[in-house]
Specification:
mainly alpha; 5% strand; 4 helices; 2 strands; two-stranded antiparallel sheet
C-alpha cells in the first residue's frame, strides 16, 4: 500500500513538472491516408505521396511560476506543490483520526491546536506557507542543494505521517 502511495506522489510530481515545461514544446502532426477496408493488396491502391508535415505552435503561454523556467526550477516548484498537498492531506487525515476514540495528536508542537479546527487550519496553513516561501526563496537565492534537501525530506516525512494517519484510521474503524 505504501508503494502505491509513493508511486502516486512521484507520478503527480512528474506530471506537473511535465506540464510546467510544456510551454516551449512544438507539436508535429502528419496527415495520413486511409486505405479502403476491403483492400488486401497494395497494388489495388494508388500510390500515396508522402504527407506534408504540419507544424503547430501553441499560441497559449503558461503564466505565473512556470513561465520560462528550466527543468530543475519546474521540478522544484512541483516539489513545493506536493509539499502543500501533503500538508492539506495531513490536516484532513489528522482531523479524521481525532474523531476516532483512542487516537490523539502525536506531534507535541501541534497538540495544543488540534482541538479547534479553525485554529489548527490557521497554524497548519501558516507553517506550510512559511515553509514553502522559505524553501522557494532559498532556491531562488542560489542555495539550491539545501532547498532540495529540505523539500524532499519534508515530502518524505509528511508522506509517512499521512500514510500512518490513514493506517490508524483504518485500524480504528476495524476494531
Amino acid at each position: 500500500m505504501r508503494t502505491k502511495k509513493a508511486a502516486a506522489i512521484i507520478i503527480a510530481i512528474l506530471i506537473s513538472a511535465g506540464l510546467a515545461t510544456a510551454s516551449g514544446t512544438e507539436f508535429t502532426a502528419i496527415n495520413s491516408a486511409i486505405l479502403p477496408a476491403s483492400s488486401f493488396s497494395l497494388s489495388a491502391v494508388a500510390p500515396v505521396q508522402a504527407a506534408p508535415k504540419i507544424n503547430i505552435n501553441p499560441q497559449r503561454e503558461f503564466s505565473g511560476l512556470v513561465k520560462g523556467q528550466n527543468l530543475e526550477s519546474a521540478l522544484f516548484t512541483s516539489s513545493l506543490v506536493a509539499l502543500t498537498a501533503l500538508n492539506v492531506a495531513d490536516y484532513l487525515s489528522t482531523r479524521q483520526a481525532l474523531k476516532s476514540s483512542g487516537l490523539q495528536e502525536g506531534n507535541p508542537l501541534m497538540k495544543p491546536f488540534v482541538k479547534n479546527a479553525a485554529l489548527f487550519a490557521a497554524v497548519k496553513g501558516g507553517t506550510t506557507a512559511l515553509s514553502v516561501w522559505g524553501m522557494n526563496k532559498m532556491f531562488r537565492k542560489g542555495n539550491k542543494t539545501t532547498a532540495w534537501v529540505l523539500s524532499l525530506a519534508s515530502n518524505f516525512i509528511l508522506s509517512y505521517v499521512v500514510s500512518n494517519n490513514m493506517k490508524l484510521i483504518q485500524k480504528a474503524k476495524l476494531g
